[in-house]
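Go through the following before class.
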Amino acid sequence: MADTHHVQRGIAVRRNDMLFAFVAAICAMVFASVIAPVHTAQAATVGSITIDAQWNRDTADQSALAGDTYAIVRIASAELDGDGTVRSFHTVSAFERFDEDWTTLTSSELNAAAKQIGTYATEHQLYSATGVTDATGRTTFFDLDAGLYLISRTNAAESNQRYGCDPFLISVPETGDGTPTFAVTAEPKFSDNGTVTPPTPNPNPEPNKPSNPTQPSRPTVPANTGAAVGALALFCIGMAVASVIIFDLKRRRSN
């Protein structure tokens, strides 16, 4: 009888050990499912585009074009290499009719495409964000995913209506010098279209406080509230079950 009792206890112990191992494995998988999305999100990088609107740039008569409204929309996502440079662009569905091999287009071809897409985006209200230039002629769009962006001046201040500005395309990141830059500065080109009085240069312009073109935007971490709470709840339940099993195992071994 004693041998039978020991055999039964051994079987029970082995079953408990197997059950404990199973619960531990489930807990590990649940915990990994909570942590992995956070690590992936932290690895993602976003950028910014600062529009620097100046008339007669780099001359004694340079004037900041303040009070103008610019609109922005991403027309293509970007696939990046390991060093952050753009490998290829993929036109988003809203602009698929304008699909091109964007990395092979010349400057004139990009300008022509920007004009066409700008008209289309305005007609179909596809712009995702707008900003107004401050006293220094600057406005910044933050938290931009990698891709090719269309920028259009959608409204000009009364004193700036003389100066024309065509839509243009710009990439985030920008790799003009071979090094990827996620804090991009765009310098729109202007044409003189009339006799409207130009803006008076401000000798002491105040910079736009939110703008910080020398620093890239911080990576964003997508919300993970619902999934994380559920996963953590499962993790806690699993740990509670494991605790009960361990307690029962110790109790059986002490008997």
